[in-house]
Amino acid sequence: MEKLEKLKQELKKINAEAASVKDLPVEKRAEFGRKINAKKQEVLAKLAEAEKALIDVAAEPIDVTAWSGTNEAMPEFYSTELGSKHPLMTELNRVVEIYQMMGFEVMESRQLDDEFHMFDSLNFAKEHPARDGYDTFRTEEGLIPPAHTSTMQHRALKKYKYKLEQGEPVAVVVPGRVYRNEDVDATHEHTFYQCEGIFVSENCTLGNMLGVLREFFERYYEQKLEIRTQPGYFPFTEPSVEFMIEKPKVLGGKKGDWLEMLGCGMIHPNVLKMAGIDPNKYHGFAWGGGIDRLVLLRYGLGDIRVFESGNLNFLREFN
Amino acid sequence: MRISLNWLKKFVDIKISDEGLVRLIGARLVEVEDVIDETHKYDKIYVVKVVEAEKIPDTHLTRCMIDCGEKELVQVMCGAPNVHEGMLAAWIAPGAVVPASVHEDAPFVIGTRKMLGKYDSHGMLAAADELDIGEDHEGIIEIDPEMAKPGDLLADVFGLNDKILDIENKSLTHRPDCFGMIGFAREVAGILGQRFEMDFSRDFGGCCRDGAPEPREDGREGRDPRKVPFKLLPDIKISDNTICPRLTAVVMEKHGEIKKKYLTYIDTVLAKSGMKPISPIVDATNYLMLLTGQPLHAYDYDKFVKVGKTDKPIIGVRLAKKNEKLTLLDDTDLVLNENDIIITSNDVPVGLAGAKGGKSTMIDENTKNILLEVATFSLFNLRKTQMAHGVFTEAITRYTKGQPPYQTLAVAEKCAEMLAEGFKVAGVADKYPKPEKPSVVKITTNEINGLLGTDYSTELITKTLENVGFQITSVSDRSEVTTEKEGASPVTTGRSDPCPKQIVIEILVPEWRTDIHIKEDIIEEVGRLLGYDNIKPVLPAHYTAERNKMFEMKRQIRDLMARYGASELLTYSFVSEQLLEKAGLDVKNSYRIVNSISPELQLVRQSIVPSLLDKSFMNQKLPVDKFAIYEMNTVYRKDLGLTDEKVPTEKVSLGFVVAERKNQETAYYKAKKYAAKLFEELNIVVEFVPLKSNKLAEAKPFEVKRSAEILVDGKYIGVVGEFKNSVRSAFKLAPYLAGFEVDMETLVTQMSHKKQINLKEQKPEDLTLTTDKSYAAALAEVQKKYPEAKIKPGTIYQAEGQKTRNITFHIEK
User: Fold this and answer.
1) What is the DSSP letter of A10?
2) Number of A:B CB contacts under 8 A?
3) What values do phi and psi take at B482, rounded to 5?
């Protein structure tokens, strides 16, 4: 309290001093103004701090070991109607559950990673332009909020390669949040969700990859589906493919409508090698696709920005 | 990149429909973003002969009678200065749309109108800009009488009834060869199962290889470029051949005028590919770049030599010195960086290599002699140059894909040929200090089929590869031979064939496929060219997966929270400095994003609750009167240090906030009730004890006097409480506000599914204690008295003016 008074006095003094600027010769005014302003800002900051402390001091203590306030009713939970689950998380769970049924482990993705996992371990040549395509954010230390869940591929391969020695495949899915330095509009978010898949075994083929992906989408949309591919390019797979499905009936698909679902390919031997897996003995495939779009499609939503808006009028629709 | 289907068809015999072709290109080569249909763009535009041309005095107009292939001549008024009797021109007939306006909202339809009050003008004679094949509006275009006759459709003569493919460049990042029509056409032939014969570096050029034929040292056809008899040999000085693997320079001396009179096929190709005809020299270089993918640059020879103060060109390639300056063609003054590659004349900078030419050596209307540079540069340096100086030309787009050096000489020669009417070759130099060795890949048929899951025969595989220029140098059956000795890897198909045949194919990779080095690259070619869609999808055998406890626990918490009326939020991982300050957190403890989109997203968040407080404000304003919101997500703080992998230690955190706009009671107890429910669900025994300090990041917004620490076995796992008044007012929230934040890693390790269910009927007794102690202390007393019983909290009453409170317990014996 006293401190606050003192600061207020000080501020008054500074203001008075500032008023005296008109008595100075013109050429000295600017310099004087700068100095006095710096002083004023400093006092104002202290004042704000002190005022904050003052209102915080006003807080009354309560008995935190109790279960209700004195002379207050016992608190109640809100009714179930007010509760909701985030549609992105519900979708992520749906996706992951199907892969779990198909024998895939789940490993969640990091949200702050390094150049090695994001690029080097995935066979991106140093300073290769392909790195630019990912529009990554960077921290002062050069860390990267990952632009794809493939940032976990190297870790997943290392963690589960013991299975190969047991004669079992490595089968992992990696759901997670990823980031791109992109301008946000109805169809672009700088923050979104992906799910990565990795499969390695002694004799798996590209045909197996198409088999797994078709199986997944047939389970997911609960109907038989035609699939189609396009050549793609990712430094970490060879061959690389873009995977499409016919637009499912539940989404109003008609004959000849196709949906691009994800990028995939046979894991590049260098990626296996770096994780300590012999590429002459084992083959693998990997894929990655977005979750946000699945939700937009499912509910016919037009704007991706609702997901991170925190708007309860939207979220409570997902009771 | 724009690909004209008609131009493509000049190189490949295409027998399927355009739709089928576009589908195949999409399925086996590259992403086609759009097909621009121009098949009706030039409807009703004819080649006509100007039979009479009468100047109207005191106007710029000429009255023309034109022969449009019909019996009657037609009258058209024309304002162009170059209209003259006997010429062939392009006539836009009445009722036709001006091609340059077809994509506008209201396309311009030509009609018949009266001019100068008395002359009927039917349709119009067109200039290049109106036809959308150039920028020239000065004069009308003239057509070569050897190419057409009056009455012909202009579109038929020049192949203008076209479809243009808009190609997604990103999907060809690794294919520099496909950025030229020849490379693109080769792939199209390949996916149609046809053999593509043309090889630009073998089939074209030659004009600079005059003199006695010398066999090339590399054994290929043609003459050795290094044995050139020209007198004027430019001197090429490359400081480091990794920044410039090859540079070919040709000096061309002017010996006549290139009279550009007629509209050419090349003009239309340039226009359809998104470039415009400019001048014969520039057009030749642009056309060759579109054809081969290899960019070229032409300098004014005399200016070049003058800048270098030499009598013979000394062409240098080196990295720029820091702060070196260069003025570009478009008058931009550039301060160069140390990784910019520059072209110099006797060490004076004259051009930004691969990006843009310099002002001082620019070609103009007075240019007599030309110096042509055809080179390749390090794509890494050019990429930095592109980003630093914001250059996005067709040339640098091609260079940053990594153009291979094999064809620079042939391209330079072809350019000299195209300009032969006006220039003759006076000197050639070709610096290629470290010629690239062609890659050789050995692979077995089984390795290909084993990775793809196919049954392709060796014959089909070799034919497919040969179609696009791979040379099969040998095919041998090595079933009997030990594979190790031969260096081939063992077969790993796992197919049922007990004794798979080992057919080894040895492949010589063509020079333009710089992306092919290993077996997998070949497998991709085979799979792609024959169509991945022809591969049968087969499920692999699968095994039982392990459980991921964290993932499952999150699922369980989601169910629980929804059941009890709480809503799950997801908020950004990045927050503003202001947000952290409002919540009382230390900004310096956050990792900072250096290239953030906005100040709102500059710092990596340290905890969840501040983001929820931010969203609480927005929701109270909507207004939503009461809500419980939570988020489970990952957070990072500098003080948590790094992991063994040298990446920041992460923390999975659950943040929760409850807020109401009109409640006068103590919000703390509601938040605590939710926290307690969570621990009960996970079967974790916790203690709530008064918060001693709020030093830890997640505890900082909380008011010590109105918050509790949550302990498991005496160990801190989080905090529950109300927020400091200063925090609450900074977020502009109503007084009824509380929350908690707990570490989820601990929850996972502590949780269990053990739960005791007691089916005995319960008759609780109430017991009220009058005390001045805390609830916890009172509870301890009751517990001492009923050690076996389950004790549940009841209400707490304090009469006015009293120091003591009446605390009620429900006792289940």
Assistant:
1) H
2) 362
3) -70, 135
* B29: nearest Cα among B133, B184, B176, B162: B184
Q: Is A139 found in the same domain as A30?
A: no
DSSP-derived secondary structure letter, B62: E
What is the tens place of the pLDDT at every residue in B126-148?
999 999 998 888 899 999 999 99
Class of domain B440-534: alpha beta
Q: Which of B518, B506, B545 is closest to B451 using CA atoms?
A: B518
Q: Any chain A CB within 8 A of the CB of B518?
A: yes
CA distance B128 to B136: 5
- What's the pTM value of the predicted model, to 2 decimals? 0.86
DSSP reduced 3-state for A278: coil
In the block, tokens 């009671």 appear at B665
Give the whole-angstrom CA distance, residue A245 versus residue A230: 11
Q: Nearest by CB to B669, which of A69, A86, A128?
A: A69
Tens digit of pLDDT for each residue in B15-52? Answer: 999 999 999 999 999 989 999 999 999 999 999 999 99
Residue with tokens 């400091």: B724
Taking CB atoms and an 8 Å cutoff, what residues of chain B touch A181?
A: 595, 597
Contact call for A169 and B592, based on CB within 8 A? no
b/e string for B101-121 if b means 16 or more Cβ within 10 A?
eeeeeeeeebeeeeeeeeeeb
In B, residues 759-778, which contact A (CB 8 Å cutoff)?
A: 774-777
Contacts of B705 in chain A (CB under 8 A): 59-62
- B435 with B224: CB under 8 angstroms? no
What SS3 state is found at B240?
Answer: coil
Give A227's strand partners.
A245
Q: Does residue B735 belong to the interface with chain A, where contact is any CB pair within 8 Å?
A: no
Is A189 in the same domain as A251? yes
A121 and chain B: CB distance < 8 Å anywhere?
no
Site of tokens 């974790």? B684
Q: Which helix (H) or strand (E) holds B75?
A: strand B74-78
- Is there a contact between A85 and B558 if contact means CB atoms under 8 Å apart? yes
Whether chain A has a CB inside 8 Å of the CB on B634: the answer is yes
Record: contact B518-A83, CB cut-off 8 A: no
Give tens-digit pLDDT for A236-283.
Answer: 999 999 999 999 999 999 988 999 999 999 999 999 999 999 999 999
Decide if B523 and A239 are in contact by the 8 Å CB cutoff.
yes
Give the residue numbers spanning the domain of A6. 2-57
**What's the rounded Cα separation, in Å, for the pair B180 and A208?**
35
Q: What are phi and psi of B302, to 5 degrees?
A: -65, -40
Q: Are B418 and B309 in contact (CB under 8 A)?
A: no
Residue whose C-alpha is closest to residue B716's, from B739, B745, B736: B745
Instruction: Looking at the complex, report in whole angstroms how far the Cα of residue B335 sits from the nearest Cα belonging to chain A.
Output: 23
Considering the domain architecture, whether residues A282 and A147 belong to the same structural domain is answered as yes
- In CATH, which superfamily holds the domain spanning B200-431? Phenylalanyl-trna Synthetase, Chain B, domain 3 (3.50.40.10)
Give contacts of A201 with chain B, Cβ < 8 Å.
540
Handedness of CA A121, A124, A128, A133 (dihedral sign): negative
CATH number, residue A286: 3.30.930.10
pLDDT at B201: 73
Put simply, whether B122 touches A (Cβ < 8 Å) is no
Structure tokens at A293: 């779009």
Q: Distance between CA atoms of B85 and B97, rounded to whole angstroms?
A: 26
- Answer whether the bond into residue B764 is a cis peptide, omega within 30°: no
Q: Which residue has the tokens 């940032």?
A: A151
Length reported for chain A: 319
Q: For position B494, what pLDDT does the model report?
A: 44
Distance CA A218, CA A237 (A): 24
Per-window interface: A 67-96 vs B, CB < 8 A = 67-86, 88-89, 93, 96
Is the residue at A239 inside a domain? yes
